[in-house]
Automatic annotation (TrEMBL):
Underlying gene: cysM
Residue span(s) of domain Tryptophan synthase beta chain-like PALP: 7-282
NCBIfam families cross-referenced by the UniProt entry: cysKM, cysM, PRK11761.1
Binding site residues for pyridoxal 5'-phosphate: 72, 175-179, 256
SUPFAM superfamilies: Tryptophan synthase beta subunit-like PLP-dependent enzymes
Cofactor or coenzyme needed: pyridoxal 5'-phosphate
GO BP field: cysteine biosynthetic process from serine
Known pathway: Amino-acid biosynthesis; L-cysteine biosynthesis; L-cysteine from L-serine: step 2/2
Species annotation: Euzebyella marina
InterPro entries: Cys_synth, Cys_Synth/Cystath_Beta-Synth, CysM, P-phosphate_BS, TrpB-like_PALP, TrpB-like_PALP_sf
PANTHER family: CYSTATHIONINE BETA-SYNTHASE (PTHR10314)
Keyword 4Fe-4S applies: no
One MF annotation (Gene Ontology) recorded for this entry: cysteine synthase activity
EC identifiers of the protein: 2.5.1.47
Name listed for the protein in its UniProt record: Cysteine synthase
Length: 294
């Protein structure tokens, strides 16, 4: 029995596709990251980034922390900062769903909304200005090695164990890229033949949690050599797949999970045989005020 909320981060279940995957020679599993206590895969990175920084003495309870986020990382950081008694300001574009803003505030974080015209890049610029001018310390998920190392230590080993080392393909949306970098690093150490597939939006698509970054904003933790293949999905494909996941598989998730599942199913159709694991990175309840399920 666990008596510490932080012990509940990780060890999320794998669920096999019962309906959407129609290739009898391929098994497709969904890694259910919404089962983390903060509701997303970002709990893993947030815990490792904060815990490791405290252990190193990078900051303490007197520090002013700040981070730009599109949502899930902010919720995870708000929850974990609250547990450790830390003050944190989270910066998001103003078009973030109200559930995300309210959840961060519920955990005790200060939330600042920046113009949606400049997107997450504008939120990042705001946070960096506060660091430069006002003595804030940035968590900096985009350049923080403790982000991807969380997945090297937990996500990769869990997938390896739960597939009994038989996984052939790993599919993940790419946002900060921490999930795919850490999981790839671990799985490739176990078996270099495992194929790592990253999912990006098509040029005309906007999918929360999946990005095709301008070069100057490309996450510093990203290493292209750790991704064997990139697959693009459209906004409409990601939306429709999120809806189908809920209706047909009983998996309630956001649009980025729909994007990853779209790529995973496309892959399943190509393969003669294999075991695919696709990340379902959060829960659908934080998108109810958007038009995703409307």
């Amino acid at each position: 029995m666990s008596h510490n909320l932080l012990d509940l981060v990780g060890n999320t279940p794998l669920v096999e596709s019962r309906v959407l995957n129609t290739n009898p020679n391929v098994k497709l599993y969904f890694k259910m990251e919404g089962h983390n206590p903060g509701g997303s895969v970002k709990d893993r990175a947030a815990l490792n980034m904060i815990k490791s920084a405290l252990e190193r003495g990078d900051f303490d309870s007197n520090s002013k922390l700040i981070e730009a986020t599109s949502g899930n990382t902010g919720i995870a950081l708000a929850m974990i900062a609250g547990i450790y008694g830390l003050d944190i300001e989270l910066v998001m574009p103003e078009n973030a769903t109200k559930e995300r803003v309210q959840t961060m505030k519920a955990y005790g974080a200060k939330v600042t909304l920046t113009s949606s015209d400049v997107g997450i890049e504008g939120a990042r610029d705001y946070a960096e200005a506060k660091v430069a001018n006002d003595g804030y310390i940035m968590i900096n998920q985009f350049a923080n090695d403790d982000n991807w190392k969380a997945h090297y230590k937990t996500t990769g080993p869990e997938i390896w164990k739960d597939t009994e080392g038989k996984i052939t393909h790993f599919v993940s949306a790419m946002g900060t890229t921490g999930t795919i970098m850490g999981t790839s690093t671990f799985l490739k150490e176990k078996n270099t033949n495992i194929q790592i597939v990253g999912v990006q939006p098509t040029d005309d698509s906007s999918i929360p949690g999946i990005r095709k970054w301008p070069q100057e904003y490309l996450p510093k933790i990203f290493d292209a050599s750790k991704v064997d293949r990139t697959m693009e999905v459209s906004e409409e494909e990601a939306k429709q797949m999120a809806i189908r996941l809920a209706k047909e598989e009983g998996i309630f998730s956001g649009m980025s999970s729909g994007g990853a599942a779209t790529a995973a199913l496309r892959l399943a159709e190509e393969l003669e045989s294999g075991i695919i694991v696709s990340i379902v990175c959060d829960r659908g309840d934080r998108y109810l005020s958007s038009d995703l399920f409307g």
